[in-house]
Amino acid sequence: MRCPFCGDDNTRVIDSRPADDNQAIRRRRQCDECGKRFTTYEKVETIPLIVIKKDKNRETYDRAKIESGIVRSCHKRPVSAQDIEQAIDDIENKIFNLEVKEIESKEIGEIVMDRIKDLDQVAYVRFASVYREFKDANTFMNELKELLNAK
């Protein structure tokens, strides 16, 4: 492992422990050259997931897209960064536990909406309004009624 500070490739592991609910290994390393310490994470490499978009184009799965949508919908809401990160992890686990090589973006969107509903109702409505492309106020009101009736 190359040191991120000096670039030397003589580093050693000084501590290892499980991370992310035993889904990864966290390693503390020390550079033999400059003596600085840094952390690395080791995860199992998975087969790339292909997302089928609405226009039938295919692209590789990108966690950052889900993260950006959730962060945008939670903007100025009382939702911590840790809660957002946990929600993204939960969504990702659900998607990968389907054990499919291809998934429609529509299915990912539904999984995200189900999880956001538990996170914050305003964030849920914000996300739903973009994801479901509300055309008018009636569509928006119908979604709100469903949300209120689900309580």
Describe the structure.
This protein has 151 residues and is an alpha+beta fold. It has 2 domains: 11-43; 50-149. The chain has 5 helices and 6 strands, in the order E-E-E-E-E-H-H-E-H-H-H. The protein has helices at 63-73, 81-97, 105-119, 121-131, 137-149; strands spanning 11-19, 24-31, 37-43, 50-52, 58-60, 102-104. The strands form 2 sheets. The chain has a 3-stranded antiparallel sheet, with no helix packed on it. A 3-stranded mixed sheet has the order 5-4-6. Helix 1 packs across helix 4, helix 2 packs antiparallel against helix 3 (105-119) and helix 4 (121-131) packs antiparallel against helix 5 (137-149). The protein is elongated, with a radius of gyration of 20 Å.
Task: Give the topology.
Blueprint (H helix, E strand, L loop, with lengths): L10 E9 L4 E8 L5 E7 L6 E3 L5 E3 L2 H11 L7 H17 L4 E3 H15 L1 H11 L5 H13 L2
Parallel strand pairs: 4-6
Antiparallel strand pairs: 1-2, 2-3, 4-5
Helix pairs in contact: 1-2, 1-4, 2-3, 3-4, 4-5
> Taking strands numbered 1, 2, ... along the chain, how are they ordered across the largest sheet?
1-2-3
Estimated helix fraction: 40-55%
What sort of overall outline do the alpha carbons produce when their principal axes are compared?
elongated
Strand element count: 6
In short:
The protein has 151 residues and is α+β, with helices and mostly antiparallel strands. The chain is built from five helices and six strands.
